[in-house]
């Protein structure tokens, strides 16, 4: 006799259709592995006799994961400060990304998208390390782009899915530069009749460090004939000169 097929229960999201005549099961909605990983369908078949007879069977539909979710960073944007000359191998930041997919589709590899030899990122942990001590006098700020890529292949593309985050790194100054004179040797001709207090030279020096670390203080040896202003570097005559005596 003729048989009629139907889904009695288990299709809680109304995603399946069972052809009543052929018994062929089809999907009529979008299956989402992250929402529901399997369905247990109660399949019932009826005859058209009198009295009507039926039989029931359970069908488990297992949903396979597709790589349809890109990684997501917990911090898409981060900012931090480090001292210049921070030693090689110092961990300064950890990027954390997650993926809603499963298995290899959720395995994440980290890489740097910024061309730099100062920083490196661990491909598995996402930890950002110092690779070469930064020098604030050369570069005082870095914008590092970190990419998180999954290991799966999306059915609609030949590429893995990925996301990117930005880490702004500000380099703090340390006192690592000595003052430098604009002229290491300076010769000045002074007449012996020049009055006390007269300016005879201006000493100039610079320091590439910042703030008080870059301020230069001048001083002289114990020559009592000359004195230098400790802030301006202006050198003055402090006592009368005697050409015949010195």
From TrEMBL:
Main localization category: membrane
Cellular location(s): Membrane
SUPFAM superfamilies from the UniProt entry: Cadherin-like
GO cellular component: cell-cell junction; plasma membrane
SMART domains in UniProt: CA (SM00112)
Gene Ontology BP terms: anatomical structure morphogenesis; epithelium development; homophilic cell adhesion via plasma membrane adhesion molecules
Keyword field: Calcium, Cell adhesion, Membrane, Repeat, Transmembrane, Transmembrane helix
Pfam families named in the record: Cadherin (PF00028)
Domain (Cadherin) ranges: 1-73, 74-181, 182-246
GO molecular function: calcium ion binding
Name of this chain's protein: Cadherin domain-containing protein
